[in-house]
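Researcher: Let's do a round of design. I'm pasting the structure tokens now; please hold your answer until I've finished.
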């Protein structure tokens, strides 16, 4: 019994030692909550403060949170957006909306826009545009990735003039599996009605819908066939595309949405127009706003006076409700003492009575206008989230119009910044299951695990709850659960784990753990002498060396100490109880032996 109790106490002590290590250190740069401090830091970083990591070459934004009411924010767990970082680094990003930590980034592109998530046949896909951008438009490709980040489709324009490809403004994956994207291309055109020559070039814009599986063009449309260039508010000038090799951008399409009936809601920025396009003939079914507006405004002009707008959408299943980001002009900056005009706009239309009214307007808490870009998404909870285009930030609003989350990526000022934080921002469910392994890097001042720090991350994995660090002097034997020396909860995109002074071993590896403690994936083995991976998969499949580990899954190191203290008490108490039971059992055996001996004497006739 003493030996058993000794083994139990030794095992408990070992676990207590494991969880009493110095443990986790936050590797991610903290969120700013002081706008003055953030603005000063942003100024020192060229307007866009960013952070780097040890275990990954990803560049992530440093965020300023001006307000955040977590109880009222929508419960969709992930934020999707695209960003440009200069030096040919751009890509889609996914953030955890619960703590604003980066979850995924792919920054191998020159430019990316229109990053979002879509559902086709019950499966979710990440979709975005990438390519080469020129003034106001671009040529590139619409990429569709599954939740394992495998490229499923690469779609672009077919049969367009000038060899034009898919434009950057839109990349929508429909429930039927087709991709809708905007198109821009030059055509010879008589522009004399707007002050240009008769033999001018026109930068026509439109869209194509292409079957992702077959690359068949299902529908295409161009603006010049259905709208007069004189309807444009953009003057015939270099500022709107006119050059020796580029045409007048009179329409500037920037969003397309297909309805269940097969029609298309489009936004023409330079006409300040929304139009519903017939999916058979291409003709406008109705026109809202602009010089050819067909709707009576029931809100004293506020419903039809939008201008230079982006991201027009019907509310899901309801074509009487339209949302958009109304830039309302081309100026960017603080409104000062004047009325702000840029707004998220929710309209109600009656396509039979031909009326329109404002349901709600959403203005930025800091009083700003944005002259370009921007987007608005209505969430399942009724909240809306707005990306503020040239002003690098996004705001989520409750159904009553009050902000519940106000976040900046850069300093909001009176000028546009070169690298956009996000064209659009949206929230969606997502379960990222990357096929690549987690990554690790080390700081090893003693060239062993002694007082070393391990940095771990897994780009794209959404289900990582914690990290386990294993070590051994033989790289090929590191995957034994008995080699577990430290654990840490996930603390952002990258978690730093300090190993302390209890071990001095040459090799380490890390395992990503799910909430139930199971191993989701593991890193390559790292040689602490060189600080480099030895290109040997660690092969870790479990970090549970004994059954007690199943019973103790502390959420933090503080609770771990309490939990393990309770385990010690249970062991000691059990030992005392078993010891007492053993004594009673021994007494009963002695008494029973006495009865047996007495019976033997009686049988031999030796009883007194």
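Researcher: That's everything. Go ahead.
Model: Designed sequence:
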């Amino acid at each position: 019994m003493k030996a058993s109790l000794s083994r139990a106490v030794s095992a408990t002590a070992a676990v207590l030692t494991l969880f009493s290590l110095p443990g986790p250190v936050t590797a991610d740069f903290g969120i700013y909550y002081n706008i003055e401090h953030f603005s000063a830091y942003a100024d020192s970083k060229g307007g866009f403060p960013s952070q780097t990591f040890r275990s990954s070459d990803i560049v992530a934004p440093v965020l300023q949170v001006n307000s955040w009411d977590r109880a009222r924010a929508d419960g969709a767990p992930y934020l999707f957006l695209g960003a440009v970082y200069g030096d040919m680094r751009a890509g889609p990003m996914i953030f955890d909306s619960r703590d604003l930590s980066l979850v995924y980034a792919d920054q191998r592109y020159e430019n990316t826009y229109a990053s979002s998530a879509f559902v086709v046949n019950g499966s979710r896909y990440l979709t975005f545009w990438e390519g080469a951008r020129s003034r106001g438009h671009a040529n590139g490709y619409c990429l569709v990735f599954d939740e394992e980040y495998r490229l499923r489709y690469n779609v672009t324009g077919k049969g367009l003039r000038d060899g034009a490809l898919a434009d950057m403004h839109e990349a929508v994956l429909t429930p039927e599996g087709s991709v809708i994207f905007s198109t821009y291309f030059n055509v010879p055109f008589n522009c004399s009605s707007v002050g240009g020559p008769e033999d001018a070039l026109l930068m026509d814009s439109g869209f194509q819908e292409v079957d992702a599986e077959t690359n068949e063009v299902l529908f295409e449309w161009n603006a010049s066939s259905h709208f007069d260039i004189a309807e444009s508010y953009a003057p015939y000038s270099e500022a709107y595309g006119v050059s020796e090799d580029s045409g007048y951008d009179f329409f500037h399409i920037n969003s397309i949405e297909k309805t269940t009936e097969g029609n298309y809601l489009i936004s023409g920025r330079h006409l300040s127009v929304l139009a519903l396009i017939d999916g058979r003939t291409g003709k406008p079914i109705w026109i809202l706003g602009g010089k050819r507006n067909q709707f009576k405004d029931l809100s004293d002009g506020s419903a039809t006076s939008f201008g230079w707008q982006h991201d027009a959408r019907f509310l899901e299943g309801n074509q009487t409700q339209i949302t958009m980001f109304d830039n309302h002009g081309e100026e960017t900056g603080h409104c000062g003492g004047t009325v702000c005009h840029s707004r998220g706009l929710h309209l109600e239309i009656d396509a039979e009575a031909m009326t329109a009214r404002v349901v709600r307007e959403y203005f930025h808490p800091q009083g700003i206008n944005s002259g370009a870009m921007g987007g608005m998404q209505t969430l399942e909870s009724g909240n809306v989230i707005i990306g503020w285009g040239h002003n690098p930030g996004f705001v989520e609003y409750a159904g009553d119009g009050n902000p519940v989350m106000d976040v900046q990526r850069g300093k909001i000022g009176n000028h546009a910044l070169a690298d956009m934080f996000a064209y659009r921002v949206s929230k969606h469910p997502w379960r990222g299951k990357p096929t690549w392994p987690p990554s690790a890097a080390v700081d090893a001042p003693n060239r062993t695990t002694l007082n070393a720090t391990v940095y771990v991350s897994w780009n794209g994995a959404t289900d990582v709850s914690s990290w386990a660090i294993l070590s051994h002097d033989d790289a090929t034997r590191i995957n034994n659960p008995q080699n577990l020396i430290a654990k840490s909860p996930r603390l952002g995109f990258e978690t730093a784990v300090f190993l302390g002074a209890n071990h001095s071993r040459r090799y380490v590896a890390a395992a990503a753990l799910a909430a139930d403690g199971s191993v989701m994936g593991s890193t390559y083995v790292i040689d602490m002498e060189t600080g480099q991976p030895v290109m040997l998969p660690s092969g870790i499949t479990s970090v549970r060396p004994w059954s007690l580990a199943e019973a103790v899954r502390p959420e933090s190191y503080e609770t771990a100490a309490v939990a393990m203290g309770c385990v010690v008490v249970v062991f000691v108490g059990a030992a005392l109880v078993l010891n007492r039971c053993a004594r009673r059992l021994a007494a009963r055996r002695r008494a029973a032996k006495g009865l047996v001996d007495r019976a033997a004497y009686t049988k031999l006739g030796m009883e007194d």
